[in-house]
């Protein structure tokens, strides 16, 4: 339902009038009006699973209309025939796209670009490009260049990347797309938000993702560790006032300053955890100066020799056709002194996630040989009875000595009483060269399977990869009682 501008707090209006629109009453009116309007639905193509062009072809067959945005993997989507909700479509359940507001997708996009001296600011890649004019630096912050050009950089180096406030997982999985050989540490401080993060990373693919549940300040105890850090900070949410009327209805400066203190703590911790020469992208979905330039300037003043602002910009919803947001890209030029104001937290050795034992390695090898699964590019671990695989990365392996992950990479399966049972998802996420394909025969049979029902008949004792319309759904084996597939499709993804 559309909100009315009368729901916007007068203190909010006065703050933005004084700080941004003092002599621009018409622009202020447009800004306030933009906060009452819902935005069009947008989706991001998961390019770790499918190319943009192939996804467009599938969308056309589904009678979906995709309209490009200024992010080359994000599209506005319109569907003329809505038989089932977008979140229950096969492409969504299998992780081929993520429902994401355009502004939420931009932080990773900027982190993945590089800056170089030139006459304009530009984002370029093989799909599309757009130009944004440069803005001058605000008081207290310096820039390396008066204007910037941004080009897609070579992100094939095996970085260790921290997503510091990761749930619900959209940006985490987007990092995996932009940095195809890097390990992503997705940290979510709030335990209640962990389930959504785990579900989304598993749905979109996660053999390079490590999920942790520490408060943001924890990572200050791991100095000079990460090559890149994304801090999409908790904020007051002014830029997405169209979603939550409470944001602008009860707005007050006391709350803003409280939030800014937390953001400052997080950015300080991120800067300490960043390697010298590394980069941070600090972003919020809010627009006031206190949570944005104010936080950046506070850390700049603490570390003036090391802290360099490469680029910053505020995106106004009335201009961008998206939610409002702020981004600031930062480089660490020199190491910083050790913390003197507090004693570093003692870090326990991780003794729960361990390398795969020899006995369990033999059990797994027997299965991988049978189905034709190659995990030679992965490091193998076990947690309790779960067998886990994460792409090989020496920095991530070292990090596991001191960090306990809630989830680590891809779950291959589980060993109980000397028997290995594969996880359904490996039939979707890995090539199983020796495993026969079972082609689901109709939309009805597909719907039955996605609702948790057993399908198939007279199957025999063997594993099959289930496929429909060219998409692998998972691996299944027959129930010996009725020779039908035992349905192990993840319950949290099933159609209701």
Automatic annotation (TrEMBL):
Keywords: Cytoplasm, Methyltransferase, RNA-binding, S-adenosyl-L-methionine, Transferase. InterPro entries: Methyltr_RsmF_N, MeTrfase_RsmB-F_NOP2_cat, MeTrfase_RsmB-F_NOP2_dom, RCMT, RsmB/NOL1/NOP2-like_CS, SAM-dependent_MTases_sf. S-adenosyl-L-methionine binds at residues 188, 215, 232. Gene3D superfamilies: Sun protein, domain 3 (3.30.70.1170), Vaccinia Virus protein VP39 (3.40.50.150). PROSITE patterns: NOL1_NOP2_SUN (PS01153), SAM_MT_RSMB_NOP (PS51686). GO terms for molecular function: RNA binding; RNA methyltransferase activity. One of its GO terms (biological process) is RNA methylation. This is SAM-dependent MTase RsmB/NOP-type domain-containing protein.
């Amino acid at each position: 339902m559309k909100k009315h501008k009368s729901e916007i707090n007068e203190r909010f209006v006065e703050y933005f009038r004084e700080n941004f629109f003092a002599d621009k009453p018409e622009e202020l009116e447009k800004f306030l009006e933009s906060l009452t309007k819902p935005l069009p639905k947008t989706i991001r193509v998961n390019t770790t699973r499918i190319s943009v062009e192939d996804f467009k072809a599938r969308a056309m067959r589904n009678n979906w209309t995709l309209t490009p945005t200024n992010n080359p993997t994000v599209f506005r989507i319109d569907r003329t025939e809505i038989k089932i909700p977008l979140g229950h479509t096969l492409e969504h359940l299998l992780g081929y796209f993520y429902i994401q507001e355009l502004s939420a997708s931009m932080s990773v996009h900027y982190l993945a670009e590089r800056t170089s001296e030139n006459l304009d600011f530009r984002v370029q890649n093989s799909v599309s490009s757009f130009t944004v004019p440069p803005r001058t630096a605000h008081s207290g912050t310096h820039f390396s260049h008066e204007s910037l050009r941004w080009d897609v950089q070579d992100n094939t180096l095996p970085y260790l990347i921290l997503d510091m406030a990761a749930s619900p997982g959209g940006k985490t999985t987007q990092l995996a797309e932009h940095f195809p050989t890097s390990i992503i540490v997705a940290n979510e401080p709030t335990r209640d938000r962990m389930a959504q993060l785990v579900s989304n990373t598993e749905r979109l693919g996660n053999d390079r993702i490590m999920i942790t549940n520490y408060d943001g300040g924890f990572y200050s105890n791991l100095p000079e560790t990460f090559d890149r850090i994304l801090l999409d900070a908790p904020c007051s949410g002014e830029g997405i006032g169209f979603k939550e009327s409470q944001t602008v209805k009860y707005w007050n400066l006391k709350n803003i300053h409280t939030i800014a203190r937390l953001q400052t703590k997080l950015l300080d911790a991120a800067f300490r955890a960043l390697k010298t020469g590394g980069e941070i992208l600090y972003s919020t979905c809010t627009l006031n100066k206190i949570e944005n330039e104010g936080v950046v300037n506070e850390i700049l003043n603490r570390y003036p020799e090391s802290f360099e602002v490469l680029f910053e910009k505020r995106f106004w919803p009335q201009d961008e056709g998206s939610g409002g947001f702020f981004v600031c890209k930062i480089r660490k030029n020199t190491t910083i002194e050790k913390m003197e104001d507090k004693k570093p937290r003692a870090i326990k050795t991780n003794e729960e996630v361990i390398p795969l034992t020899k006995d369990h390695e033999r059990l797994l090898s027997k299965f991988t040989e049978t189905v034709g699964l190659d995990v030679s590019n992965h490091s193998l671990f076990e947690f309790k009875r779960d067998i886990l695989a994460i792409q090989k990365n020496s920095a991530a392996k070292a990090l596991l000595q001191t960090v306990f992950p809630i989830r680590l990479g891809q779950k291959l399966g589980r060993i109980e009483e000397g028997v290995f049972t594969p996880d359904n998802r490996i039939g979707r996420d890995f090539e199983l060269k020796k495993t026969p394909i079972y082609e689901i025969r109709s939309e009805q049979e597909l719907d039955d399977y996605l609702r948790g029902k057993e399908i198939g008949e007279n199957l025999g004792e063997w594993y099959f990869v289930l496929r429909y319309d060219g998409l692998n759904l998972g691996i299944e084996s027959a129930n010996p009682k009725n020779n039908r597939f035992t349905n192990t499709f993840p319950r949290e993804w099933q159609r209701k």
